[in-house]
Specification:
The complex is a heterodimer.
Chain A lengths: L1 E3 L2 H7 L5 H11 L2 E5 L2 H37 L2 E3 L1 H7 L5 E6 L8 E3 L6 E3 H18 L5 E6 H4 L27 H7 L2 E5 L5 H10 L10 H11 L6 E7 L3 H4 L3 H12 L2 E7 L19 E8 L10 E9 L5 E10 L2 E11 L4 E8 L5 E8 L10 E8 L3 E7 L10 H9 L9 E6 L3 H4 L7 E5 L6 H12 L3 E5 L6 H9 L10 E6 L12 E3 L14 H4 L5 E5 L12 E6 L4 E8 L2 E6 L15 H20 L2 E3 L4 E5 L7 E6 L4 E6 L1 E2 L5 E5 L6 E8 L5 E9 L12 H7 L6 E4 L13 E2 L1 H21 L10
Parallel strand pairs in A: 4-7, 4-9, 9-10, 10-36, 18-19, 18-20, 20-21, 21-27, 28-35
Antiparallel strand pairs in A: 1-3, 3-37, 5-6, 7-8, 11-12, 12-15, 13-14, 13-16, 16-17, 22-24, 23-25, 25-26, 26-27, 29-33, 30-31, 30-34, 32-33, 34-35
Helix pairs in contact in A: 2-3, 3-19, 5-8, 9-11, 12-17
Chain B lengths: L3 H4 L3 H5 L4 H14 L13 E6 L11 H7 L3 E5 H4 L2 E7 L19 H19 L2 E7 L3 E8 L4 H9 L10 H11 L5 E6 L5 H13 L3 E8 L1 H5 L6 E5 L5 E4 L1 H25 L3 E6 L4 H16 L1
Parallel strand pairs in B: 3-4, 3-6, 6-7, 7-10
Antiparallel strand pairs in B: 1-2, 4-5, 8-9
Helix pairs in contact in B: 3-6, 3-12, 6-7, 6-12, 8-9, 9-11
The chains are: A alpha/beta, B alpha/beta.
Chain lengths: 780, 305
Amino acid sequence: MPTFDFTSLLWWGLPLAAAPIVIHLINLLRHRVVDWAAMEFLLASQRKYRTRILLKQLLLLLLRILAIAGLVAMLAQPRWTSALTSLLGGRRTVHVVLLDDSFSMGETFADAVAGGETTAFGRGRRMVERLLEELAATPGRHELSLGRFSQLAAATDSELPGDSPPAAASGSQPSPAETDEEQSRLFDLRGEPVTPQNLTRLRRAVGDCRLSAFATGPTAAVRAAAAVFAGHDGGGAIWLVTDLRSRDWMAAEDTVAALEPLAAAGIEIHLVDTAAEADEPATTTDPLPRPNLAIEQIEMVGGVPASDVLLPWEVTVRNLGPEPVRDIPLVIREDEADRPGVQLEQIPPGDTATARFESRFPAAGGHFVEVELPADRLAADNRRTAAVEVVNKADVLIIDGASSPNDGPGDAFYLATALDPGAAAATGLRPRIEPPRSLATLDLDRFDSIWLVDLPRLDATEIQPLEDYARRGGGVVFFTGPATRPDVVNQTLFRDGAGIFPAPLAGAVDLLTDPRNPDTPDIIAEDHPVVAILRGRRNPFLDAVRIDRYMAVERSYQPPPDSGLRRLLSLRNRAPLAIEKPCGEGLAVAILTTAAPAWNSWARNNPSWVVVMLELEGQLARLRRRRENLLVGEPLTLPLTPGVDRIDVEFLLPPDGLLVRQTAATTPAGGLEARLTDTASPGGYTARWQTVAGEPRERIAAINVNPTESALDRIAQSQLARVLTGVPYRYERADQLEPDGASRGGSSLVRPLLVLLLLILLAEQLLGYLVSYHPVRRRG
Amino acid sequence: MIPASKRYLPPEALARIGRLELRARTVVDGVLAGMHKSPYKGNSVEFLQHREYTRGDDLRRVDWKVWGRQDRLYIKEFEDETSLRLFLLVDGSASMDYRPPRFAQTSGLTKFDYAATLAASLGWLGLSQGDAVGCAVFDDRVRASVPARTSRSHLASIVANLEQPRQQQPSDFRSVFRSLGETLPRRGLVVIFSDLFGDRDDLAKGLRLLRQRGHDIAIFHVLDDDELDFPFDGPTRFEGLEMPEELTCNPRALRAGYLEAVEAFLADVRSRAATARCDYQLVRTGQPVDAALVNFLARRSRVRS
């Protein structure tokens, strides 16, 4: 229906439409008198055309009234809410707008309205503003609720971790929001009446909505919206303002299931597409591709994060577009300082490419490494941060249970020498040789890895901390030897697979020589990252290792399929020499020979010994460091030591170092933990606290966007219709519903009205001409 | 060739000439000045008299014998020609007094003024030719009349008759034409100057009566331009000159119907005039009087020849 920008002008001006009637009446009074001879003909004409004349005069009067009314209406700036009002219908009063604020909505487009560039989120926000204007201009009471995907995801527990933010300020895991109060808190606007009076406030609220770094799908938001309609017996409309990415909609059973009851309740469902482009095909079953490069991962792939140690990094970039991309420069920053960049030569479509670079930090402490891609359609995934805690030396615990210092160089010595060869080759490691009882007394979490060499026995008080350490992500390496008692190991450490030891032992055996193949190497490197450097070609160093004796695994042992057991090294008789077993978040590795060159010659002047040990240590230590690379929305937990650390923790949030204070709480397991849930911004986070003794402590973490959201490919309309079979919906394009400049919404009726007015005036002139006399000019 | 607009006296100029007699003479002078032969040419065996040649006379009727003897041009006139009796019958009813409200744009002559001027002009022309000319003004009866005379000074009597005050009653053609038919002593040319507003059946009967008396009839149907074009605009109250009705209306709306009715009226009048074998000529008051006169004479000439 039409609305007017200047309604008061309409009410003041419309009475002017009566002017033709008034003028007509005045003219009837102000006639002139003519003494007329031919009255006979005049009366005949009057008798004949009385009805026609009356009708013509009435029509003429009507046209003049319409002309004035049309002029007044035109000056009152009418507009027809055709685009949206037809959607609004006029009957519904409850509208729920669900605004997708996942970071894929940051895809940029040319801004047809304001020029320059806009984002899909900007389009969506402008469409919501337009909707507000239309609702305010539409008679009747309209209530509007506005919620963002990222916020509403906290209303349900359906989303995967890392895909949704935790419940705001709740300090706990996301949980279903059941009460109205919680619902109101999750929505940016809840049941707000949309009137011209509070339009400014509502628009401001929409303008305050910001694009998030989350990767939230629509399901949780739709479920949260259902709560708004609960108990509402009238109609309503739900506006899903989203970019219709394939990953959210190609397999959207949950979303469809959430929409079905709404549709059944008569709620109109509008899918407002914010990322549509004019040249997109509407009918295809394949996703509509969009070019985008995303950094999927930055990982330290070796080395020990110690001061002045060269750390190797690997950055993985995925090409999510349909075309190969070449010559991609990567900007590298260490603690916000630019470092020499690297370049990726080519990434095939849909594939990844990896670049390696190195960093070296002179000082101990928390450091951030950041890699950035050139600008493309989506900015949020062009930058990724990694955190590394650099220490002066990384402590490695070596538990030596058999040899004593008096016996000369033993297993621990050779191992410690391999891990810390000396100043000439700085590994950053600081081996610390301790007896088995230290497992019960030391804080094992301080150590990068724990190595146990030829232990005759461990009691339960020593095994428990060791296993806990491994489950928390620690790496444990066992070396066997003459002191190792297979039965004890099997009972205390293996425990039929429940323990930390990878496999049951049968006993020490000699590796028999093979007279037929005397040149066959004793050790075979398996397909494992630790020994990858030695695999695939004849390696003179590894081939030179001679294994005389080893601890055999029980011949009958068949590991369960899900045990995760992997071989690192095998003997030429196919017996395992080094095997690993996942243990919680950590890893346990058993090397079934001695560290010292007692049962073998490996540690005796063979460089491969040092290489493998350092690689193994790096592999085990990465398990612990990997946990610090979190995704946006995942809570940042900081374990503290009761009685040692104070409970007050300050978190510095990216990008501007916003200070958030948190108080550590006791965990169910009895530990102490500070938890930061507000991890909505990607970047480097810093936690600072003090010990009871007043010693300052600091820990850093990097939080990044979920790379799955970087796929910008979209679902085609035809495919969307198939996915939403059974759910009546209307598809709209946000860029076609955006308000222009100073628009109050609706389509301006000024131009059509002007045309109509001209037609009326033309008809009036024509009719006036037909009923009037126009003397013919006589020639001459 | 002189354009028609310059050749004839426009009614506006004629209106500025106050005296009807002078007006008539002016018209006739103009008519004669523009003609190269006399409008009348008679053929008869009964010689009446010689008359000095005047410009426009048919050279075939010059008496060449007299010219041979006296070296002067004389025209032979015969009994038939000199016995033409012209009777001017001018409608003096109220409807003839219509004066256009927009005086500045019209001649300012009422239909009666125009008809009287035309009648006087024709009378002077006839007198100039030696015809006997009589005149009567009528409405529902004959109000004033002068008998037919041939003397040139008779024009003054005709004009005086036309200028007499009138009663301005509606026309009654039947009774007027009947009484005239009975009183006119000899056959002649009866020229009627009227707007013919009135009972048209009575008009037809009256014309038939005159024809039955052997009169030749010519009708100058004098109508005002306004009556033919109906150029009125704006709310107007029309008050009948002869009828008691009045009508307040928007004239623009009624114009088409009015013109239809006028056309029907004219067609009817033409038809009835033709039936009665009358010479009919529609004259607009905006039309120059002398032009109307020339047209009439030309028509008469064609009829006679």
